[in-house]
Amino acid sequence: MNALTVDNLSVTYDKSPVLQRVGFEIPEGSLTGIIGPNGAGKSTLLKSVLHLIPRLTGDIKVYGKPYKEQRNLIGYVPQRSEVDWDFPTNALDIVLMGRYGHIGLFRRPKKKEISLAKEALKKVGMEDYANRQISQLSGGQQQRVFLARALVQDAQIYFMDEPFAGVDAATEKAIMNLMQQWKYEGKTVLVVHHDLQTVEDYFDHVLLLNKTPVSYGPTQQVFTMENLERTYGGAISFIGKSAQVIQERG
Amino acid sequence: MEIFELFTKANAQWVLFGSILLGFASGVIGSFVLLKKQSLISDAMAHATLPGVCLVYMIFQVKSIPLFLIGATITGLLATYSIQFIVKHSRIKTDAAIGITLSVFFALGIVLLTFISKNLSGNQSGLDDFIFGQAAALVSSDLQMIAVGSLVIIILSTLFFKEFKISIFDPLYAKGLGLPVTFFNAVLLALVVGVVVIGIQMVGVVLIAALLITPPLAARYWTEQLGLMAMLSGIFGAISGLIGTFISTLGEGLPTGPVIVLCASVIFLLSLIFGSKKGLVKKVVATV
Question: Which residues pair with A205 in a beta bridge?
Fold first, then answer.
């Protein structure tokens, strides 16, 4: 069963194309890394699939049904840098936002929601920081708060935008554990990822993207030197270093 | 006017009541506006209400507050959309777009106002009071409208508290949850317009935005919780409204708006120095 089907997705920004005719199918229970150079449209892909930015063309299906009917199956972890962390609120409050869709208009979070949020904070090792001001959290802790917020959504498919960017070892481990747990529960995870050296450790599927998909499939088959060169084009030295790592690992 | 008279006369009581409620409503709404980084847009919108009021007077030739408020709403919204249009369709940045919109609309307002007072015997229209506000000139029907309008604004911002919070902090995520973020933004904008149009008679178009900006800025120095910040900001606004109106009704011809704004600024200054979360004293003590 395919958890996600994207067909003929195109997105333009100021009339110049950012994504062209993107199509792929993501099997249920897979961990997919979306890999590509800067400006390849990785974040744009995530946002357009999630209907957060307008698409020129494109059909998105979740478990075979139109996206809009299946929205409650989707969990989203945006890039940490996209919000103002000086906002006057605490960690627990941010996690509770993950329940706003369930709580409904004009209602306040009840005890049930608060205990769910605390449980989620515990799962990412942040239970002691529930009442901490968000501006006083480290980058990694902020990322874990966002993870907890996605966790309380209790989704089937999780989208994460650069969750590993600039985080500490504890957070990296928390994200990896969470992804493994989601996989174990049959959930599907798509992650925009930057660091080529960790791709093989984190993901069982890879989507190589440069405005249009270069290749998609199981990491073993797709994450090859040849495909990377096709994806990254001229960035030779960068590629060379990663390729070395790939070869060393055999 | 005697001080005691102010407290016993029915109209004067309405004036104080109205200014307290207006101050509270604008303080609460201002908290959201400040965090949305739209304080200056609200200032441009406030200035842009003046031509609306003047145009309505020129068309209908009567002093009708409800009509004035309709005119104010139309040009105020027009200015807001102009700013958004300029930013979206040109290379001009938001600050410059706000600057040019504010000056064009306000200049038009002043030209129309001068024309009215020279040619349409507008001296009796009381339109001049819209520039800096004149609480003493308000009649009880005006004040009832201010009071009811403020109450509606306070109730709505309480109802939409959680929705405003998420759509300001993380609009994309909120959209991802399927929440109607555009609608929430429109509600917030409507509430800002509401504060501005009911407040211009009392505080004036030039300074009404200060009631949206200064109290929440002051409140931010005392708390790190949005709910508390909005409440505190409302209280600061109410105190400024109360004291400012009181002082302005004591002296003949003291414009209400500037006095209220000065009160709010004193509160801000005290918060800047003594604020328990971000105040200067606290910072100095922490570094010693």
Answer: A32, A218
Return the CATH number at A10. 3.40.50.300
The confidence band for A236, taking pLDDT boundaries of 50, 70 and 90, is very low
Number of domains in chain A: 1
Tokens encoding A249: 């690992």
Q: Which of A78, A84, A88 is opposite residue B173, by nearest beta carbon?
A: A78
Task: Let me know: does A239 contact A35? Beta carbons within 8 Å.
Answer: no
SS3 A218: strand
Q: Is the CB of residue A78 less than 8 Å away from at least one CB of chain B?
A: yes
Task: Report the alpha-carbon distance of residue A146 to residue A139 in Å, rounded.
Answer: 11
Residue B78 has pLDDT above 90, yes or no: yes
Residues of A in contact with B176 (CB under 8 A): 50, 52, 74, 76, 78
Q: Which residues of A touch B166 (CB under 8 A)?
A: 97, 100
CB neighbours of residue B139 within 10 Å? 11
Mapping DSSP to helix (H, G, I), strand (E, B) and coil, where does residue A7 land? strand
Using the CB atoms, write b or e for B163-184: b if 16+ within 10 Å: bbbbbbbbbbbbbbbebebeeb
What mean pLDDT do residues A165-173 have?
91
Residue A25 pairs with which residues in a beta bridge? Answer: A5
Region of A29 on the Ramachandran plot (φ > 0 left; ψ -120 to 50 alpha; else beta): left
Q: Return the structure tokens found at A120.
A: 């989620």
Task: Residue A60: give the domain boundaries.
Answer: 2-81+156-248
Contact A88 B220 (CB under 8 A): yes
Cβ separation A100–B179 shorter than 8 A:
yes
Reported ipTM: 0.90
* pLDDT tens string A105-158: 888 999 999 999 999 999 999 999 999 999 999 999 999 999 999 999 999 999
DSSP letter, residue A90:
B
What residues have CB less than 8 Å from B210, skipping those under 6 apart?
B203, B261, B264, B265
| Distance separating the N- and C-terminal Cα atoms of chain B | 51
pLDDT, averaged across chain A:
90
Which residue of chain A is at minimal alpha-carbon distance from B226? Answer: A88
**Per-residue pLDDT tens digits for B112-170:** 998 888 887 655 667 888 888 888 788 888 888 999 999 999 999 999 999 999 999 99
Residues A247 and B15: their CA atoms lie apart, in Å, by 80
Per-residue pLDDT at A50 exceeds 80: yes
Cβ neighbours around B59 below 10 Å, total: 10
Q: How distant is the alpha carbon of residue B216 from its chain centre?
A: 12
Domain CATH number, residue B147: 1.10.3470.10
Q: Which candidate from B163, B173, B179 shows the least CB-CB separation from A76?
A: B173
Mean pLDDT of B220-241: 96
User: Could you list the residue range(s) of the whole structural domain that residue B191 is in?
Assistant: 3-287
Identity (one letter) of the amino acid at A208?
Answer: L
Q: How far apart are CA A159 and CA A153, in angstroms?
A: 12
